Amino acid sequence: MKIRRFTFLGLGLPVLLGAIALGLGACNSPPTDRATSDSIPLGVALAQSGNAALFGQEAVQGVQVAERWINEQGGIDGRSLRLALQDTGSDEAGAVNAFQTLINRDRVVGIVGPTLSQQAFSADPIADQAGVPVIAPSNTAAGIPQIGEFISRVSAPVAVVAPTALAAALKIKPDIQRVAVFFAQDDAFSRSESEIFQQSIRDLNLDLVTVQQTQTSDTDFQTQINNTLNLNPDLIVLSTLAADGGNLIRQLRELGYEGLILGGNGLNTMNVFPVCRRFCDGVLVAQAYSPAYEGAMNVAFRQAFEAQFQQTPSQFSAQAFTAVQVFAEALQVLARQEDLSALPLDELRQKLNQQLLMGRYETPLGELSFSPEGEIDQKQFYVGQIQMDEDGRTGRFTLLQSTD
Ligand code: 1QQ
């Protein structure tokens, strides 16, 4: 597992390498029970390797833009916000390790992460027990904020987002009657999202003709697809992660399915395009973010993101930016009340958790706040449709519907 620290303070490579060689992580101050006086360390635990890196890489871009943006605005009462990044990999053990390192070695004030709900159910209890606030940037399964009082999220739960997409599919094709569902049974998010989809299908009096189970590591879906196509569905709904979902879509089309496909949050990344290529064209995806949202904070975020990465931000980038923004704004409020460097770290973590839950934030996702439990209250949701370019590798989500 690699440790990367990206400050924008212009550290030279030799310093960086020297610090890594000493096992300290770059420019890490020696452990103290106070936040260091010139910067405040915020942990970021995201998947940079393994199958969830397709999401995690977009999220890291979001936190990088946030760190720069916040420090350009003056940081936290004159001190800079310094992100400590740990690669969680894509499994539970990696997330647990990353959390432990950030909590005990880097002595962060809070953590943005992990990438998958599947990881969160293992890693979050560790932060909760240590009294370290966690904001999940992309955990959408039911039950995440309920893990503990220190756990909240800026990623709207599947229960809120998924039904919107089903309604959009029916609007496009009102005669849909026979619906098939696929889900990755070894992933907490995929199971949770599929339950919601299946309930919504029944609530709409549609026929749920089959429920097929897959694994996130699967690359061949021929058996499940053949079973499904024999039943003549007019809509197929997928709850998977990105690589498995992308391959599944490609094989559905290769095996002759021509009807509508609706994907869940696992297909919300542009990194899925090179996997499913032109076969992704037309797939519907429910989204908790739209780059087209005209709120001032989103306009600023979009500009900063495009300047830094020459591409349009997608949902995982916007959510990760938002998680850092919430931490930073809560810290700014606390810093106006007292000298944060004089607070013992455990007290600062506790106060930060209380403060962030109380706030109201103007973010790229729109205005948001939290329930006392840490569940996000978000107003706007969207349905995007994948539109692939001629090259069959790049594409975009075009906005089909918004709740604005
Ligand atoms: C979760 C998700 C994934 C699809 C995105 C990272 O929503 O694991 O909760």
Tally of DSSP helical segments = 12
What structural category characterises the helix and strand content? alpha/beta
Terminal CA distance reads: 41 Å
Portion of residues in beta strands equals 15-25%
H/E topology pattern: EHEHEHEHEEHEHEHEHEHEHHHEEEEE
Helical percentage: 40-55%
Task: Report the major sheet.
Answer: 7 strands, mixed
pLDDT below 50 for ≥5 consecutive residues: which ranges?
A: 1-33
Bound molecules: (3S)-3-methyl-2-oxopentanoic acid
Specify the CATH homologous superfamily of the largest domain: Response regulator
CATH fold call of the largest domain: Rossmann fold
Examine the secondary-structure arrangement and name the CATH architecture of the largest domain.
Answer: 3-Layer(aba) Sandwich
How large is the radius of gyration? 21 Å
Number of domains: 2
Strand order of the largest sheet: 8-7-9-10-11-15-16
Which properties best describe this structure?
404 residues, Rossmann fold, 2 domains, disordered N terminus, binds (3S)-3-methyl-2-oxopentanoic acid, ABC transporter substrate-binding protein, Peripla_BP_I, signal
Structural commentary:
It is a single chain. By secondary structure, the chain is an alpha/beta fold. 41% of the residues lie in helices and 20% in strands. It contains twelve helices and 16 strands. The protein has helices at 13-21, 53-72, 92-105, 117-130, 158-172, 188-203, 222-229, 242-254, 273-276, 296-309, 315-337, 345-358, and strands at 3-5, 39-46, 80-87, 111-112, 134-136, 151-153, 178-184, 207-214, 235-239, 260-263, 284-287, 360-363, 366-370, 376-378, 382-388, 395-402. The chain has a seven-stranded mixed beta sheet, sandwiched between helices. Strands 1-3-2-4-5-6 form a six-stranded mixed beta sheet, with helices on both faces. β4, α4 (117-130) and β5 form a beta-alpha-beta unit. α2 packs parallel to α11 (315-337) and α11 (315-337) packs across α12. The longest helix has 23 residues, at 315-337. Mean pLDDT is 91; it is low at 1-33. It binds (3S)-3-methyl-2-oxopentanoic acid. (3S)-3-methyl-2-oxopentanoic acid binds next to loops. Belongs to the leucine-binding protein family. Keywords: Signal.
